[in-house]
């Protein structure tokens, strides 16, 4: 799996095999979006829709955007994508992992339509893939959490044991541990991306177990609301959740799809669109942090900002050895940096995390 | 005041008139809803009800979406006629899909034309077996089949999740709770090129006809109708209620399981936790909209599929939110179910009690 | 395994809060079913109550107004079902399912301007002095008013059904509507009232989610709670106090699962604990009623529980899906045991449940 590191350059600079896709400038582009949740989830789908609106704002009359929300992953998704492609849409963003096979299948039938699939790994001449290096954000919030916890217990609400989530846990834990050797992570798997009541209950359980900072890898702002109620701290996920926890939110790891979507629409307008694979982080602006809370002391703020800048500049990698796996076996040697392949398939905890990874 | 008088025979004219009336009322109230949302009601109706019928691809998708609804509803209608309430078709659908997938994945390295029939047998049998649990608990212990079959839906849903996160998970799938994609011999052949209309649609049609024959010509159909319409007469006629229960539950479960097999081997080609999208529950409504008769069910399934497909197009063509489509569909169902009374009853002005 | 941080009182407190929406919705559905009507639209009424309560609370700034609006909203939606099934004689199963679809859609539509809005907070009842009593203070006096109200509701429904004439009439209607009719009882109005009551309770249960337990509004936030409420009514064998037990058990399974994870325990433990709790409850009930026939069954449940503990050995990984099945399997078991003895079943399950009532002529 090849991954181009930078998005903005990628579209223009790379001249990969673009056979079958005619490079032709256009003066009007129709862009479609397929969302897995309702646009009002204040998490994953909401944030994609924010970027859709940014595209509209940026290009004005030159684009027309449409979307279909709450599309179940599976046979229904294939029909929605195909209907979109048939209705004269030039560029289609399918924004959930579970749309992968459907996107590739429809793309085969519509060689002149461009497809962009989020978080997947299957590409074609007219299918690009894109995702964010959320774990870079997790590194920064890990640093803040490690410095700010008083009980040395961080609560983590996790969804499913897929590599993206495991990577986030590991990144946050390693960063927190690096500034606070006594820190402990309590991880609760809720087996859902979106169930506000269950997420709220998980947050309560973690608070009862002594967590004074909550991190989440689920989509609803329920945990933030609970943190606010209980007077503890939390990090937002996907969108800025400050309105749900004005006192609780330290910062939020925001999915920021605007720059990517704008660049891809621009590429179609220019006739320079090509199939690419993008995994962008702080460097491309795809991962951003919400405004830091005043509760974070100045020195911690500086530590976090420096880490973010170093990651963006490429001088710091959240997974730099020596790192052992949970069972004590060595993973990365001193100074060694994790390769993207391992990160993309990560299915193990690093040393120090308690509990078993659910299978 | 008005009163209701039961008709001896369902009214033929009302049978044809009420769906038209229901659609008309839905168009009026739904139109008002869309207009209130600032959308053009005429355009919305056109996109939802008319456009899909004149577009070849949408027509093919109507079959893909409508076939499982019709197949499950046909099975359920037998039991509903006998007064046996299987509302767990969703669970039987899931078990059918899981069993068929287990077969497909067990022979992942083997190709052969025998694979699809084997999957069909496995899926059908699993659905029937899952439905036999409430049937047996009903006949043996008198446990209410509505509640047992409903409980078993949740058990089946959890079973599906356990399977795709465990034994049936794609070993190369990065821990995602998904199975491998099926290889070609485990995928149903497509009938019309460039569409997803699969063999299952044909089988469904054949079963609709079979159901019609069964209900009107076969002794089992007679027993089913008798034990639903006149339970006491049925007992005198020597109809064994337990046998009817087993037959109805078994057949409806088999149909639901078969629909699950068609769905997973047809459009899905992979087992995923998101596979069940409520076909089993929607089919109950379809069965009643179709007045428990095979031709009616086919029509009702088509209308239901139409609102799904039209609703999706309305979202991206007109920006009508998914929630509005769902509300609209709810309205249509209420009108259809509510007006059903005109078929079975006559509305008469209440006679004066005191004669002058 | 570190149990030092385990606070059983905090655990029970959060369990009770998690179960309260279930208590409310299931109690309402129990009354509806006792009148002989099966309304499968609980999920739709709950989610509709969640948004109407949320909207009203936000607009007026008063959570009490929210709960009132939720009860009204739930009742109105339920009456739609009532008119359909009682006057237009549509099938209850199909109409209930349609009601769920309609309620989910309508709630999402109304709720669009309310996502991301913060509701007014619903204060805990702090009775001076009482809350400071060690253990008992936290266990009994640390909740918000709705928790007490939900328990009071269960008590009131129990009293109504077993001790009042009106309750007897309601049960008679559910038992045999033709006989009730010939005795001069007004079957349809009584059922409409029961349906509306069920809707109001479901609406309040939904509002408890959106105003207290989560608190915020998001589309589809009930996430199946209405269906669990239906299961609880069966589990409780149509007895109000058992609804309370059932709701706490069902709600407890999730809470225990999350808490044991936070404790880094094997998640199979709550399944075993849950099964043992069910077994003991069952044992207690059957002993009290002097029915030794249930003893083998209780022993069976305890045996299964022991097995679950055996499997809790870390060598066997039990996925959480298997655990989530347990409450439903137990419900089926309860239903079977209850139905086994026809005379006893007749005392609990309303015989006319789901049947159409129509007076000819």
From TrEMBL, chain A:
GO CC annotation terms, alphabetical: plasma membrane
Signal peptide: 1-23
ABC transporter substrate-binding protein PnrA-like domain: residues covered: 29-301
InterPro entries per the UniProt record, alphabetical: ABC-Purine-Binding, Peripla_BP_I, PnrA-like
Keyword DNA-binding part of the UniProt annotation: no
CDD domains membership: PBP1_BMP-like
UniProtKB keywords: Plasmid, Signal
Stated name of the protein: BMP family ABC transporter substrate-binding protein
Automatic annotation (TrEMBL), chain B:
Superkingdom of the source species: Bacteria
GO molecular function terms attached to this record: transmembrane transporter activity
CDD domains: TM_PBP1_transp_TpRbsC_like (cd06580)
Alphabetical UniProt keywords: Cell membrane, Membrane, Plasmid, Transmembrane, Transmembrane helix
Intracellular or extracellular location(s): Cell membrane
Keyword Transmembrane among UniProt keywords: yes
Transmembrane segments: 62-80, 92-108, 114-137, 146-168, 197-215, 244-265, 271-290, 297-318, 330-347
InterPro entries named among the record's database cross-references: ABC_transp_permease
Membrane association type: Multi-pass membrane protein
Keyword Hydrolase assigned: no
GO cellular component annotations of the record: plasma membrane
PANTHER family: ABC TRANSPORTER, PERMEASE PROTEIN, GUANOSINE ABC TRANSPORTER PERMEASE PROTEIN NUPP
Protein name: ABC transporter permease
Organism field: Paroceanicella profunda
Organism lineage string: Bacteria, Pseudomonadati, Pseudomonadota, Alphaproteobacteria, Rhodobacterales
UniProtKB/TrEMBL annotation, chain C:
Keyword Metal-binding: no
Domain of life: Bacteria
CDD domains linked: TM_PBP1_transp_TpRbsC_like
One GO molecular-function entry: transmembrane transporter activity
InterPro entries: ABC_transp_permease
Protein name as annotated: ABC transporter permease
Keyword annotations from UniProtKB, A to Z: Cell membrane, Membrane, Plasmid, Transmembrane, Transmembrane helix
Compartments it resides in: Cell membrane
Membrane topology: Multi-pass membrane protein
Chief subcellular location: membrane
GO cellular component: plasma membrane
Transmembrane segments: 6-25, 37-58, 64-84, 96-115, 135-161, 192-211, 217-236, 243-262, 268-287, 294-312, 318-338
Pfam families: BPD_transp_2
Keyword Acyltransferase: no
